Amino acid sequence: MKNNEFFEAVKFLSKEKKIAEDALFEGIQRAIVTAVKRDYNNKDIVFCEIDPDEQKFRVFVRKNVVTEVLDPDEDMTVEQAQRFKKNALAGDIVEIELETKEVSRIAAEKGKHILRQAIREAEHGQIKAEFETKKQEIVTAKVSKVDPETLDAFVEIGKISERLLRSEQLPTDNFSAGDIIKVYVAEIREATKGPRATISRTHPGLVRRLLESEVPEIFDGTVEIMSVSREAGSRSKIAVHSADENVDPVGACIGQRGARVNKIVDILGGEKLDIVRYSEDPTQYVAAALAPADVISVTVENEEEHSCKVVVPNSQLSLAIGNKGQNARLAAKLTGWKIDINPETEEPVINFDE
Questions:
Q1: Residue 255 has pLDDT above 70, yes or no
Q2: Rounded to whole angstroms, how far apart are CA atoms 296 and 105?
Q3: Of 257 and 158, more confident
Q4: CATH match for 3-127 among 3.30.70.270, 2.30.42.10, 3.30.1480.10, 3.30.470.30
Q5: What Å distances lie between residue 12 and 24, 116, 119, 207, CA to CA?
Q6: Is 331 within 8 Å of 237 (Cβ atoms)?
Q7: How far apart are CA 312 and CA 345, in angstroms?
């Protein structure tokens, strides 16, 4: 194949596969180097340079010029080196360009494999780049199918297909093909068949991003989300702080007549949201985190271990603890403090760790 035919073929593939030409050239370079290295005992001495503008490419090996050859693959004598570089001296590195016949032989034997590998690598790189822009963000996904046995949902995010595990869905989720849903891209990982994303509807980051999208004061930095604790589908607690003393962080998140928070509750299928004011004072912070329960007092028992004693009115004990301990558990996770809840007139009842 002539050089111009090679570059035209890459241009055609780029359009057909919707892959950037640069990504294809990089993949071809890596694939050619891998193929040629096999003739040199897989030593890292093979290089490939492609210049699309000049429509030129070259494949060459780099060898050390030495007085005594220890490794024929990597070393050559001064006399040998001077055949390629007239003034070569010991200590130099000489580039030896492979002859066109040798490159043509490799292209003929492994050309299809090289192109397939280059396309695969370029596609993987493109997917990874697209995923990276979505990491720790909410994206819109379309459900393509649902596994009837596992109830895992297969979704399309742009041109990317991913699996939303049942364990990463809300308890109330019941998807069908064609549904448009919001998911949170928790992390990107490398897999055998290319980059994959862990997507979730249960991750605390989903609540954080929803608040950022619905509350302008969070988006512009006036109000900051300090912490989120979540038991997906049931309840979340969010601690917020305002950099402007004239802005009520809790009120900003709730919105007029609850409009902002209710919109998020609807998206989350009815999940309750407790938005509380953050404080540097742990006693105030813990008291706020136990909302909607009223708190009489919070006493720090061990600052190093982050443990505290909370006293609540007898009538508020069940509310402070919550159903199956949920309210106290979420408060402990939110604040990072171990909370020992006590009724006003009885012995300690229950302890909760973060």
A1: yes
A2: 84
A3: 257
A4: 3.30.1480.10
A5: 11, 14, 12, 44
A6: yes
A7: 9
* Percent over 70 (pLDDT), the chain: 92
Q: What residues have CB less than 8 Å from 71, skipping those under 6 apart?
A: 43
CA distance 54 to 188: 37
Superfamily of structural domain 203-278: K homology (KH) domain (3.30.300.20)
Average pLDDT, the chain: 88
Q: Which residues of 269-285 are buried (b: 16+ CB within 10 A; e: fewer)?
A: eebebbbbbbbeebbeb
Nearest of 233, 345, 235, 341 to residue 287 by alpha carbon? 341
| CB atoms near residue 286 (< 10 Å) | 26
Length of the chain: 354
pLDDT in tens, 163-214: 999 999 999 999 999 999 999 999 888 776 777 889 999 999 999 999 999 9
Taking phi over 0 as left and psi of -120 to 50 as alpha, with beta for the rest, 323 belongs to beta
Q: 215-239 pLDDT, tens per residue? A: 999 999 999 999 999 999 999 999 9
Q: How far apart are CA 251 and CA 196, in angstroms?
A: 39
Give φ, ψ of 47 to 5 degrees: -135, 155
Question: Highest-confidence range of 76-90, 100-114, 115-129, by mean pLDDT?
Answer: 76-90
Question: Is it the case that residue 350 has pLDDT exceeding 60?
Answer: no
